Amino acid sequence: MIAEKSTLTQTLIHRLSSQGNKVAFLQENVLIEALQYLEENGIPNNKHEDYKYCNVEAILKKEFQNIEQKFSTELVKNSFSNKGNITLVLLNGVFSPEYSDAFEKEEILVSAFSKLDAKRASYIAQLAPVKQDAFVALNTAFSSDGLFVEIPKNTILKNPICILNVVNASSEVFLNTRHFIHLQEGAKAQVILETKHLGEHKVFINSVSERQLEKGAQLIASELQNEHSKVYAVNTVNAHLDREAVYDCTSISSGAQLIRNNHNVSLNGEYAAAHLYGLFAANGTQLIDNHTLMDHRVPNCESNELYKGIANGKSTGVFNGKVFVQAHAQKTNAYQSSKNILLSDEASIYTKPQLEIYANDVKCSHGTSTGKIDESALFYLKARGIGEESAKKLLLQAFAGEVIQHLATEELQESVSQLFEHTL
Q1: DSSP-derived 3-state class of residue 421
Q2: Which pLDDT does position 61 carry in this prediction?
Q3: Residue 122 forms beta bridges with which residues?
Q4: Most CB atoms within 10 A, among 123, 185, 207, 270?
Q5: Distance CA 26, CA 124 (A)
Q6: DSSP structure class, residue 103
Q7: Burial of 181 by CB count in 10 Å (0-12 exposed, 13-18 middle, 19+ buried)?
Q8: What DSSP designation does 156 have?
Q9: Strand partners, 109
Q10: How far apart are the C-alpha atoms of 295 and 325, rounded to whole Å?
Q11: Paired strand residues for 224
């Protein structure tokens, strides 16, 4: 059994340590710092303001009694014989060249963390410091041998990089997955990230993604979080943008019992731009919780956020977004919007858009709305001979389409639209 609240963190550390996890690619002082932070702060519960609606400590106590890190290659061979367009494959968070496609451009670096040279290995845990959050610290201390991708200077990739994490749940599994994406000056790339769940047991996935965009780099990322119903996921993304870099990220969340997304963007160079788009559809007793931070550190940058949610049954949706404009970040242009639809009286959505501004020459705004399907629009469609259920579905598809259209490719947009229609 997992111990009581006072020793939950120690129990997790003991169990993960006993499974032979050795994060050899990180410096020892970083690992020690991560463990110290965990022991001092513990796993967040609903007494932590940032986790008010997301009591992860209680979930770990209740749902995960015998966590392991096992992986069956045979299960992958039987269930994942055709990679199709998938380029890079991770098995329970560990990069697998055997199941991955090779790049035509040899200069693009694709490597497991453990195979990196000392210089590149030193990048890991720099963009996501261990004291940022307990789950970052936990991931840093027990990360699997993840994936490092580096796009060279001025390289433009025509086809997306597809990263698939195949998760095997032959027993209760606790995974700490990680990857680092580095775009050098002027590089341009699209990345699609997805998880495939195999097995029947519960899985807790604690993932960290560090993304470095140098001067003039452009990254379009699409996160497909169509998880299995027995998945509990905490996802942390830290993106750092240098001068004139452009970062677009769209996340689609559904399926899992718990999804917590922490998306943090630092605009470090002038004329950088960041755009975050999110869509979730929650049913049953699911909880989908999005926390974002746009940190404007220098002048003349822009950011835009659009998050939409649909909640049905007894589900819960959360959006907590903060735009932080530091004193030197004059000429900042930032916009934030959260729009939500409740499909049942028992569903709940909590929104908290925030602006914290210390500069005086800025254009910043935020807005939020939560309600039911527009009755006048529904009446308009029904008056033209469309049945009520079909009319509702059309309105919800139009509502979601404003986010889906930002996914990396038209094929992906079509696929997600069909998946969203099935979810509804």
Answers
A1: helix
A2: 83
A3: none
A4: 207
A5: 7
A6: P
A7: buried
A8: B
A9: 150
A10: 6
A11: 194, 252
- Report pLDDT for 24: 59
What are the domain boundaries of the chain?
A: 5-269, 375-424
Count of other CB atoms within 10 angstroms of residue 323: 24
What is the residue type of 218? Q
The CA distance from 92 to 279, in Å, is 25
pLDDT value, residue 69: 55
pLDDT, one tens digit per residue, over 75-130 is: 454 444 334 455 798 988 889 888 887 766 667 899 999 899 889 988 999 999 99
Tokens 């999110």, located at residue: 278
- Residue ranges of the chain whose pLDDT lies below 70: 1-25, 65-86, 103-106, 424
Predicted TM-score (pTM) of the model is 0.89
Can you give the pLDDT at residue 390? 79
| C-alpha–C-alpha distance, residues 291 and 302, integer Å | 19
Q: Which positions ≥6 away from 239 have C-beta within 8 Å?
A: 127, 211, 212, 213, 219, 247, 249, 263, 264, 265, 266, 274
Q: What is the pLDDT of residue 59?
A: 86
112 closest CA partner among 141, 139, 147: 147
- What is the DSSP pairing of strand 94-95 with strand 88-91? antiparallel
* Predicted confidence (pLDDT) per residue in 360-384, tens digit: 999 999 999 988 887 777 777 777 7
CA 372, 374, 376: angle at the middle one, nearest 5? 145
State both tokens at 299. Answer: 């002048």
Cα–chain-centroid distance for residue 156?
24
DSSP E strand stretches across 185-315: 188-199, 203-213, 218-226, 231-241, 246-254, 258-267, 273-282, 287-296, 302-311
Q: How far apart are the C-alpha atoms of 348 and 363, rounded to whole Å?
A: 31
* Tokens representing residue 4 in the block: 């009581």
Residue with tokens 């120690």: 10
The candidate with the shortest Cα–Cα distance to 234, out of 211, 208, 260, 202, is: 260
